[in-house]
Amino acid sequence: MLPVILFLSSILAHVHPGAGQRFTREILTGSDVILPCDDGAGNPTTLAWSVNIDGNRRTLLLVANGVLNQLSPPVTYAGRLQLDGTKDLHLRDVTITDEGEYRCNAYPYRRYAITLVSLKVYAQPMAPNITIYPDDVDIDHVPVGTNLTLSCTSNNGRPAPNIVWTITPNNRLVLTEPSLTTTEASEGLWDVTSSISFVITGNRVTYDIRCDVTGPGPITNQSVAVVLTSGPDRSAQLSTGASVGVALGVIAAIAVIATLVFLLVRNGVVGKGFGDTRSFEGGFVNFRMSFSRHHKDKSDLSRSDVQPSAPPSDPSPNRKQQSQEARTNSLQKPRPHYRPPETDPSMFTSTPRDQSYENYIKWSPSFVLYSKESSVQV
């Protein structure tokens, strides 16, 4: 009996496909599929299912006189084949390697019937994801002028999935030319990455960015979206804030100086004599201020280069006439000028010379800002 079955399967497997039907089946990996067979007149006496593997046709199932025989099918089909009814082939848990052309040869009562079924196997890609560069950007506040790059990746698809970008700022579509990278992850499966780059131009604009992954046949389209909101450059805001802070500091300093001057005038430091020290306390700042004027030693007035400013008065009866003559002589004489002694030049170091006096004035201002805990002298 076995030799007869082998002989029939050999004949049926090599019959040239003449009149018959052609079908196409598309299925996702992991699913079950039923391949149809047209038996012509019905109730075939002999039926054989075969598949073309690498150019070689291999018999999967043979039915002769109602008896099912599995003639050592390829190992990859083990445990996954059975007839659905009397003629259709039921293939369970489809894999990528199951893709190919299947043929059913039926020998009914009067003629042969041949059915060709093209099986296409697809792989549903993984859910896409979007990555943003720079990766530290705050999507709720993207500074104006930022150059963004967004990448959408979908892995393990068959065939390689298609990626379509949609960018809608304020409900207005923006078209951009993406870059596409396709790599083979494993046998028959593909990873795809699509990237777009654009510059944030509008302030307070909401960007609705969507990545759609599509594929043929039974592949389910998938989408992922991200929402970006633009805003002013925070660094510029910080710079403006720093400038305002400096300006406020300057204004505060001017106010303090003006207050000090007011207190000096009110307490009589300015415009009064020298050589004294004034202290003031009030508010959050306490200060002490002193001025001193240094005169040259009186003994220096006896030097020969210093002339009296007026001749001594002559006790005579006509005092009015003598006084008038003394004033006239005083105006005609040059005013004496004092020169610092050469033996002690450090005595009047950095001391301005006052042409209207016979002595020199040395100003020594001293400011002391102090509190209960500490003091600072300026």
> What percent of residues adopt helix (DSSP H or I)?
10-25%
What's the rounded overall pLDDT mean?
73
Shape designation: rod-shaped
CATH class of the largest domain: Mainly Beta
Cα distance spanning the termini: 122 Å
Count of DSSP helices?
A: 3
Main sheet attributes: strand count, strand direction, barrel closure = 6 strands, mixed
The CATH homologous superfamily name of the largest domain equals Immunoglobulins
Strand content: 35-45%
Number of structural domains = 3
CATH names the topology of the largest domain as Immunoglobulin-like
- Second rung of CATH, namely the architecture of the largest domain: Sandwich
Order of helices and strands: HEEEEEEEEEEEEEEEEEHEEHEE
**Largest beta sheet: strand ordering:** 1-9-8-3-4-5
Number of strands: 21
Which structural class matches the secondary elements?
alpha+beta
